[in-house]
Structure formats: C-alpha cells, structure tokens
Amino acid sequence: MLPRTRTALPIVLALSFLLLAPLTALTQEEDTEPPVVRMARATWDTGWFQAEIYRLLLNRLGYRVDGPRTMENQQFYEAVADGEVDMWANGWFPLHGPLIDEGDRVDLVGTQVDAGALQGYFVDRATADEFDITNLGDLTDDAIASLFDIDGDGRADLIGCNVEWTCAETIDHHVAEYDLEATVQHVQGDYSPLMHETIRRFQAGKPILFYTFTPNWTVGELVPGDDVVWLETPYPSLPPGYSGDDRTEVSGLDGCPAEPCQIGWPPNDIRAVANREFLDANPSVRRLLEQVHIPLDDILDQNARMVEGEGDPADIRRHAEEWVAANEGTVTDWLTASDPDAVPISSVLGGLAGGGVPLRVAVRALPPFVIYENRTYGGFEIELAELIGAQLGRDIDVYAVDTVAKQIDDVARGAADVAMGGVAITQAREESINFSLPVLDTGLTILVPTDAEETIWSRIAGFLRTIAGSDLPWLLGVFALAVLVSAHLIWLSERHTNPDFAEPYAQGIWDSFYWSVVTMSTVGYGDKVARGNTGRVLALVWIAAGTLVFATFTAAIASSLAVEEIRGDITGPSDLPGARVVTVSGSAGQTYLSSLGIGPVLVDDIAEAYELLDEGSADAVVYDAPVLEFHATREGDGEVITVGPDFESVHYGVVVAQGRVELREEVNLALLAIIESGAYDQLHDKWFGAEG
Fold first, then answer.
1. pTM metric for this prediction
2. Among 213, 405, 430, 475, which residue is least crowded by beta carbons within 10 Å?
3. What is the reported pLDDT for 370?
C-alpha cells in the first residue's frame, strides 16, 4: 500500500497541475476569478448534511467555497466575529445566543428550521407508566432515582451531552436548580456511544434516562410516545445569560404527559450565521441565506441513513446532491431571487481543512473491531491501538463517533491523531487522508447453521416444512375432490347390476371410495371391478388420470426435496443460487449477491440476520468475514459456522492525516514490530480464532 500511494501522489499532482493550468491562465487573462466563501461547520456530524447543501447552493451562486472547516461552537463564533471565517449553517438559537457579544459584527440570516430543534429529558415508557414518572422533579425520590442507577452509587445516571457542548451547562443548571444533586448524576462523555449503550439497555428491558435533541438519529431509534416519554421540568429555568424562559412550553409533543408540555428548553431555530461585513460586500449571499429552508423530516431521514451505514464523506455529499436535485424548482427560485444572473457551475474546488502527549484515537463502534460496553472500549482494534501506543511510548485516548465521515474529518482537522475501527482502505478515501499498512486483510464470508445440531427429528421437521411450502398440499386437495367425484360416479353406474358396489349408500360409497383409490393408483387388486360398459369406460379414464396425478405428486415432492437439499448443503459462494440468503442493506454483501443475480433478504442490522438464520427463515448469511467469524466463535458457538474461503477482498487500516507523514511512518514501524514479535497473531486469534 505504501509504494502504491507514493507512486500515485506525483501523478495526482501532475494531473492536477495540467488540469488547473489552463483554468489558471484563463482566469488571469480575464481577471474573473470567482469570489470565495470561507465556510465552517459544527462538530456534530448530524449537521453536516445541511452544511453540504449550503455549499452546493453557494457554488451554484458562483462562489468558490473554502471548506467547510469543522469548528467547536465557541471557536466559530469568535472566528466569525473576527472575520477569520465568513459563515456556517449550524446556528441554534436561542441556545447559541450567549456566544455572541453585543458588539460582535455577526448576523443571523434566515431560518433553516423554524422552532424544530427541540431538547429535553426522556425515560422509557414502561418504567414511566409503572411508577407514574412524569416530571424531572420525581427524581428527588431516592426510590425513583435508583431505578436508573447504572454504576451502583444509588443515584440516577442521566445520560447527558459532551462537556464542550452548550447543552451541558443547561443540564447542570437544571440538576442544581431542581435539587437533584443528591439523587441524579449527569453522565458526560462521548454522546454517540453513550446513546448506543442506552439503546442496548432499552432493548434488554432495563430502565433508561437520557437527554437528547432534534434533529438527531436518536429519536428514530427511541421514538417519543412509543418507546419513551418526555419528562417535564418543574418550572422553566435557564442559566444566567440564556433567553427563552417564556418559551419552554411546547404543544403537540407525542409522549408528553401534559398539553402543552413543559420541556425546560425553548425550541431552537436552526439558522445561518455570518460575518456582517462579508454579507454587506456580498448581498446575493445574504439574499440566498434569507430564503433557504430545509424540512426537519428531511434532516432526520438523512441522519438515519448515516447511522445505518451511509456515513462516508462521499455519502453525505451524495445525500445533499440528491436533496438539491429533488428540490430543483425551489432551489432555482432561491438562486434566481438571490441573483438573476446566477448559473450552475460544472466543477467546484473545495476540500477539508486539515492539521509525553496521548495518542488521540477516533473510533466507531463495530464489533469485533470496536466494542463499547459499560462505558469501556474493547475489541480487536482497541487492543491493537494499545499495542501501537506501547510501541510509540504513548498512552491512547479513545473516543467514539457515529460515522466514517466524522472519523476522517476529525483526523484531517487534527482533532484526532488517528482513526480506527473497521475503516476500509479505498481509493476515494485516500484522496483526502492516508492509511497505514493494512491491519487486517479480509473479505466476505458465509454463515450457515452447524450440522452438529441436526437430528432425526430436525430432519423430519425440515421435511414437513418443505412439504408444507410446496405445491403438494393443494394437489392433495384436488386428489381428494377427484376421488370423491369418481366414487360417486362408479357407484351410480354399477349399484343396480354389480354386487361389488352395494346398494345401501353408506356401504356402497365406501366400496366405491376403495375402488377409486386403488384404480387411480394403477394397483388394481381385482377384488372390485366394473362390469357395465359405462363403468368400464369410467375405469379406463380414471386409470389414465391416475397416472398423471401420481406423476404430478412425484414431481412436486422430488422438486421440493431437491431445493431443500440445495439449501442444506451450502459450502461456498457457488452454492448460494437457489438458497435463501440474508445480508445487511447497503453492505458489500448486497453488492456481491446482486452481481450473482441473487435477490437477498435485506435487513438493517446484522443481529436481525442472525435471528432469521436461527429461526430457519434463512439458509445463509453473507457479510464481512470478521463480523461473522466473531459471532460464530462466541454468541453463535455450536449453532452456526462460517463456510468456504473468504471472497471479495477488503483491507482495513489506521487513518492518518495526509500532512502527518512522520506519524504515519511511526505507526507503520509499530505495526511491523507488533507483527514480527508474534503479538499480532495472538491478538488476531483471540478475536477471530486461529486460522486453519
């Protein structure tokens, strides 16, 4: 990988020069270089979709966007007031109001989302209903607070927000204001893994207490009104310097015990914030920012797509491009109203800004690479990071984010030294960041039920399931109806002249049924035969029909058993056609199976695939080999097994910023030392099992 990257870099630079040289010459000749907007964006990646839409709009207005740079709240508001950056699209008001001084030359422009950014406290609905919990003040009761005690100190653990976020100050204020300090602990840390752990507790049926905000992916996972309910605050109270105490009652909230609901936080408008001098010099930008409105539901949908796997920078750019294309008429109206001469541009120059101390590692929870349980990080790449840190003589400082895009951005801007956790090495990613030597070479594999659990009873059950799912049940119905008709016809034609078919209906119809069955089967014992011409003609027709019926039965059973045999004998990719294969939506497994012409069963989470396999609704799972092998050797041990060789090769690496060549070399040397010492093999075998 290193030689390929070194060889490619001069080529890329040369091509860039050749492509840009004519453009540079043209702009110098005509002196029409486009104006520049220095754009920033917030550290929460749930706001990057909106920032990307604004970047596209500014491009189409004729501006070249420098950035967007990712900045902390305080850092941005100081920079925009000083004229170091021009704008961002991630202002929350009144929440961010205290960050702007009266003398700052800063303007709030337009309203991207009107009063749609809500914040508040939630508990799971089951616990709220059982113990009649409706208000944050209820947590002053030791018995109620202990329901939400995670760490065993007797206090409720309120999952809050990161220390540097503005919401942290308000949560701390509420805990003190409502006399909750003795019974409630504000748990702060990396918000995303804390919330993922909260969701796992909810799924396990345990009580949960947390703060969240919208737009954010959490309200899609824990739905207010269905899964969780709002906790009202005893009365409105915000920290000194914050406005909006009179707007903390909100109407129409699903899952709130009162109407209107006292949520303790005023609804926030999401607004663009820009330097006033920049806006005065660029009135078309001001007019554009005044018009932009992005529906809250669109933002929530995009946030959910990021969490479900579409979290690369390219994915977020694509989401924004798709939104602009879907709203082309509205976007055109905005641009025309901003500048009648605005025209789309075909290409855009832009990019991300980049940059005894602990090694700061940005990770993404993805077992077995990174596992976050009980506020502790573990997993293959966490332990590998510790080995790398030991080789470098540095401690590691691990924090988690939701998406690969956030990992890459944090490394590029210097918020993290490296990023780890199942980040695949791709050409597209290497355009903005660098990778170490591969830390794991893997691919896709197949997970199937183990044969060890197959008994005579499971075989019988499988046979019955096969028959039930075939055409045989309805063919049996047709057969029964035909026998019924044939028995009556032969009885009617023979009852007066043939003693083999008795005159009383009750006895004669039974004899007729017997004759109909043995004749159709072509066995024909000869103990009962038709003697009249009509009866003999009927017998000949019935014998011919019986041959066809039994041939159909035989074909149906043989076909069903053949399919079952195919499904039960999957040993590699060539056995997948004809089987019921499940994989995760949007994964490499889906792409691979589609290329084979296999329409897989798609699920949102790999755990759902395991459930389908366990209950017999799927024959195989195709997914990333490390993930399936981890499951097979632990939770699925003895019940499932991976089969066949890995296919569709994938390489994972450590993400390092492009400008940090020395750190990259240090990481590579550390990896080589770990491999040569045998520590890597031990670590690999611990998490994935020994290679056969």
1. 0.62
2. 475
3. 92
